[in-house]
Design goal:
4 helices; 33% strand; single chain; 6-stranded antiparallel β-barrel; 4-stranded antiparallel sheet; alpha+beta; 369 residues; elongated
Length: 369
């Protein structure tokens, strides 16, 4: 009986029992009827928001940042020499002064003496002319010499009066004082600079555009009216292009404009200039969210399948993309443009459209060409 309880015997019995159970299961499966059904794969569509392209009646403009600059910094010099004895309370840096506002007073005493001496010389010349006329003929050389002396002393007298007037130095035009170089007690010479002035009427707007942007602008540019707005989008005035740089610096061109009429802008203030573009054949716009990083928009064809179109000419402004629809077989950019295209989109993908209304604000952005 010892062999009955051996390990080998127990293994044989377990193996036999397992084979018996396996054969029973296989026999049961063979006799079971299995019903099969044809399962069609579900046709799933990509769900996307779409917007309607808007036909624009007017051309967009190229919105560029600009700055109001002084056309020239004028060095105001003295026409007379002498010691400064007085200065105006307005003779300070940063003061915007009107024309003929006095700044400095040069000691007038030497110039008052010159006026008195010139008056005496003029009176003597006048008396000498009368005496010569009484003694000589009117066409004689002595009379002609006396007449020439009188004219000379008249000019001397006028010059003395002019120097006396110029001893009170005044601003010849309205402008802002940006530098003070002379003070009371100092002695100045003729032609010495006393201050630097930015003329109030000598301001211009400078706009920097790239060479590519310049090529897209309407021609001719000179004297073309330009709308000027502040950084908040409020119109501050009109300007005309007076100059265009004829050279390219770092692939950029310069436009110079002057403002029309009165304005409240100050030198150095930044503004935005609405530059005219060359006309497009057809102008449409969609929300900026419809434009991809590759400058493409996705639209739906008549079978509701996604198609993409690269935009070659467009402007991004006021959170909308203004573009000229390419001259292709599609006369119109269809009705549905995807609002938020994903990177997973592919040509011909089936799309389930969900129209959305996209609100735009008046926030102005830098235009892209």
């Amino acid at each position: 009986m010892k062999w009955l309880f051996s390990v080998r015997l127990r293994q044989l019995l377990a193996t036999g029992l397992g084979l018996f159970v396996l054969l029973a299961i296989l026999d049961e499966l063979e006799n079971t009827e299995v019903t099969t059904h044809d399962v069609q794969p579900e046709n799933k569509s990509y769900v996307a928001s779409v917007v309607q392209p808007k036909a624009e009646p007017h051309m967009p403009t190229l919105d560029k940042l600009a700055a109001l600059e002084a056309a020239k910094l004028v060095e105001l010099t003295s026409d007379v020499a002498g010691r400064i004895v007085d200065s105006s309370p307005s003779y300070r840096r940063g003061r915007v002064l009107p024309a003929q506002e006095w700044l400095l007073q040069v000691d007038p005493l030497p110039y008052e003496a010159q006026v008195a001496a010139a008056r005496v010389a003029l009176m003597n010349a006048n008396m000498a002319l009368k005496n010569v006329r009484a003694q000589y003929a009117h066409d004689s050389l002595m009379v002609q010499t006396a007449n020439a002396d009188l004219e000379y002393y008249q000019l001397q007298y006028q010059q003395a009066q002019q120097d006396l007037k110029r001893s009170r130095i005044a601003l010849p035009f309205s402008g802002e004082l940006v530098d003070i170089r002379t003070h009371i007690g100092e002695h100045i010479a003729v032609g010495q600079s006393i201050t630097s002035v930015i003329p109030h009427d000598g301001q211009e707007i400078r706009v920097v555009v790239s060479v590519q942007e310049f090529d897209s602008l309407a021609q001719p540019l000179l004297q073309h009216p330009i709308t000027i707005t502040d950084l908040n989008g409020n119109v501050v005035g009109k300007a005309h292009i007076q100059g265009v740089s004829q050279y390219s610096e770092q692939l950029q061109r310069q436009l110079y404009m002057t403002l029309d009429g009165q304005h409240s802008l100050i030198t150095g203030q930044h503004v935005r200039a609405q530059l005219p573009l060359k006309p497009w054949s057809r102008v449409y716009s969609v929300p900026e969210s419809s434009l991809t990083a590759q400058h493409e928009i996705w639209f739906l064809d008549k079978h509701q399948r996604a198609q993409k179109q690269r935009l070659h000419t467009f402007i991004v402004q006021n959170e909308r993309v203004y573009f000229s629809w390419p001259a292709t077989s599609n006369p119109h950019p269809l009705d549905n443009v995807l609002a938020y295209p994903r990177d997973s989109l592919a040509q011909g993908m089936s799309i389930e459209a969900r129209p959305v209304k996209v609100e735009t604000t008046t926030l102005s952005q830098e235009a892209a060409l």
